[in-house]
Design a protein that fits this description.
The structure is a single chain. The protein has about 210 residues and is an alpha/beta fold. Helix content is about 25%, strand content about 25%. Strand 1 and strand 2 form a beta hairpin. The chain is extended, with a radius of gyration of 24 Å.
Length: about 210
């Protein structure tokens, strides 16, 4: 694991590292360029579509280049599979040298399991928990499998981000305008005008004398 890079690899060299290490396990790779700001200096995004069995090893390989910053794990129901995108940055904090590296794995709906990477990057557990409850995947080895956003009374087997029969049923969809405001909602505090606050301040000080 490197926290300070010995040498900044080019985006092509980063892709070559993974191609040499994992061969045909890298199904597809591409590099995109962005130019932002006044100077229009180029920034690069590296996309690697890999076999899901290689995910853990691929993150370890990324760590050997430079300890990555995990932004988020995103996920989409693409029909016959659930696709997960692990969005990392490497050379994080390096002036004009930072790349976004996204590792994409497809989980066929007949086997919605994927290994945890929380043993490598502990903060990943929060994004893994979200993907479990929203997409119905199983993160094998996750150190904390509790729900993150959904309440405990939310029905089992319903996953809000799925587009198939396990998604939100029509019976659970509510018209927002008809829901109304909750009756037990606390009354928000009122802002005190500055003049009144200034007048009250001396009295408060006298009370403590």
């Amino acid at each position: 694991m490197k926290t300070t890079p010995d040498k900044l690899l080019s985006p092509d060299e980063v892709v070559a590292v993974f191609a040499r290490k994992f061969g045909k396990g890298v199904r597809e790779s591409r590099i995109t360029e962005r130019r932002e700001g006044v100077g229009k200096r180029p920034s690069y995004d590296i996309w690697l579509d890999i076999d899901k069995s290689l995910l853990h090893a691929a993150v370890e390989e990324l760590m050997r280049l430079h300890f990555p910053h995990l932004g988020v794990i995103s996920g989409t129901d693409i029909g016959d599979a659930v696709e997960l995108n692990y969005h990392f940055s490497i050379y994080y904090g390096t002036k004009h040298g930072e790349y976004m590296v996204t590792l994409t794995v497809a989980l066929p709906k007949g086997d919605l399991t994927v290994p945890t990477i929380a043993d490598l990057i502990p903060g990943a557990v929060f994004s893994e928990r979200e993907k479990q409850e929203m997409l119905g995947i199983e993160v094998v080895g996750i150190p904390d499998g509790r729900r993150l956003f959904l309440p405990e009374e939310f029905p089992e087997g319903v996953y809000p981000w799925r587009k198939d029969e396990t998604g939100i049923p029509a019976s659970m969809v509510k018209d927002l305008w008809a829901v109304g405001r909750p009756e037990n909602r606390p009354v928000p505090p009122k802002a005190v005008p500055e003049e009144q606050a200034a007048e009250a301040a001396p009295a408060e000080e006298e009370r403590h004398e």
